[in-house]
Design brief:
six-stranded mixed β-sheet; 453 residues; Immunoglobulin-like; 25 strands; 40% strand; 15% helix; five-stranded mixed β-sheet
């Protein structure tokens, strides 16, 4: 068997033994070009799980990392390879340290089945296998976008160590594949990348950080403004975990573009082990948890219906992501993160954006319904949901030479835009004929469509 030898480092840390073999794995995607992403696989072997081999010169431990990546659309194998991880054992102290490493692949857009196996090179029966379904959607073609979150064990700062396998974008980032923090790893460090953030608009760009416990309660939150001077940038941060009680947590980063009325989010689960910290529920209701509670009581049918109503403000990647979700809980988590990302002021006591959106749904159903079409499904309802109340509306319901039409003006959008709707069928179903808003239907000859013949 031919093996590829790879470098690694060893880290001490809290060990949670697996039933079979203590091997941990994690991954993250980052932008590469407009057709592909760069996918990093992080792994760790705990040496106590590996068999010690003896030679005349040294004792050593060896693990084997086997990775297969298959394109689910063609069945073709993209990767099918073994890597040998070997380390000389100098003393018994070193045996309680994890061998941590990273390998990376460039993958084109698509859906891949990834099988990762970590095993003892001396005793292959000692192994652990993990299967992941990986969807690659190139970040550089998605408009404003955020890469995955990579968890790290050490402070992330600029480094000159360009020869390190963990060197990336002037930083050295030591992964922690187990995702376990707390008593022996008191601070969580994270890394992500932002893409396509440069804009001609003057709107603010903000990144929000929320940490949720397993009950959906916010235990930590903070926000900061982001410069739009560069099209792509790195974002690093930290979460103090030494005061958190033992639990499962989720880190959610949300990137908010106030100019485009748009937000995206990325999330990462991690675990905290702090046996000396007692859990005390000091939670107070804030806007973020109102969202969690709202979707927590919805049935799957209600979740699907609410997302249909939310599609007007969803990006294409968000729509694609929701449509492949198959579990009720996954849909609940998605909608929770979706609306948290659009909360314009996470520090207050309510997600005002969500409240306003729900109010506009109700108002649209009253004001703009037509025939069997609900108000929010109409063109006027859609525009009202996305952009809110117009600055002014000019109505022309009884013209002798034209069918009824309306002109909606929004003075605060792009220096002033307008939407023109016409009842071309005569059944009070006003459709969008023309708009000066970028990205909306434009037809400078819209008048011809409402002329009475």
């Amino acid at each position: 068997m031919k093996y590829i030898y790879i470098f690694f480092i060893f880290l001490s840390g809290l060990v949670f033994p697996q039933d079979n073999f203590d091997f941990e794995f994690d991954y993250a995607q980052f932008g590469y070009d407009t057709t592909s992403n760069y996918v990093e696989f992080y792994y760790s072997f705990n040496q106590l799980s590996l068999t010690i081999s003896h030679s005349d010169t040294a004792d050593y431990t060896e693990g084997i990392l086997h990775v297969t990546i298959e394109d689910t659309s063609t069945g073709e194998s993209q990767v099918d390879q073994d890597w040998l991880i070997s380390h000389i054992v100098k003393d018994s102290i070193n045996l309680n340290k994890n061998l941590v490493g990273v390998i990376g692949f460039i993958l084109n857009e698509g859906i891949y089945k990834c099988d990762i196996i970590g095993k003892d090179a001396i005793n292959p029966d000692k192994q652990r296998s993990i299967t992941e379904i990986l969807e690659v959607k190139p970040f550089y073609q998605l408009g404003i976008a955020m890469g995955d979150i990579q968890l790290a064990s050490n402070i992330i700062q600029e480094s000159d160590n360009t020869s390190s396998i963990f060197y990336k974008n002037t930083f050295e980032i030591i992964p922690i594949p187990s995702g376990i923090f707390g008593e022996n790893q008191p601070v969580l460090f994270y890394y992500t990348e932002l893409y396509n953030v440069k804009s001609k608009d003057n709107g603010n760009l903000r990144i929000d950080e929320h940490v949720f416990n397993s009950r959906g309660q916010v235990v930590n939150q903070k926000s900061k403004s982001i410069s739009r001077s560069l099209d792509s940038r790195v974002e690093v941060g930290s979460v103090m975990t030494y005061k958190l009680p033992t639990d499962t947590y989720t880190l959610v980063l949300s990137l908010i573009d106030s100019a485009a009325n748009y937000g995206i989010s990325s999330s990462k689960k991690f675990f905290v082990y702090n046996p000396s910290v007692e859990y005390v529920d000091t939670f107070k209701t804030i806007g973020s948890n109102i969202v969690v509670g709202m979707f927590g009581v919805m049935s799957e049918e209600e979740l699907d219906d609410f997302f249909v109503k939310s599609r007007y403000i969803a990006s294409v990647p968000e729509i694609d992501k929701y449509e492949v979700l198959i579990s009720e809980n996954a849909k609940r988590i998605f909608l929770t993160n979706f609306w948290k990302a659009r909360d314009e002021d996470p520090s207050d006591n309510m997600n005002q954006y969500l409240k306003d959106y729900m109010r506009r749904i109700k108002e649209s159903n009253i004001k703009y319904k037509a025939l069997s079409k609900k108000g929010w499904q109409s063109d006027r309802g859609r525009v009202y949901l996305i952009y809110g109340q117009p600055s002014e509306i000019d109505r022309y319901p009884n013209q002798t030479e034209t069918r009824p039409y309306e002109i909606w003006r929004y003075n605060s959008i792009e220096g002033g835009v307008q939407f023109i709707f016409g009842d071309v069928t005569g059944f009070s179903d006003y459709i969008l004929l023309h708009s000066t808003k970028r990205g909306e239907l434009r037809d400078d000859g819209w008048q011809r469509r409402i002329v009475v013949r």
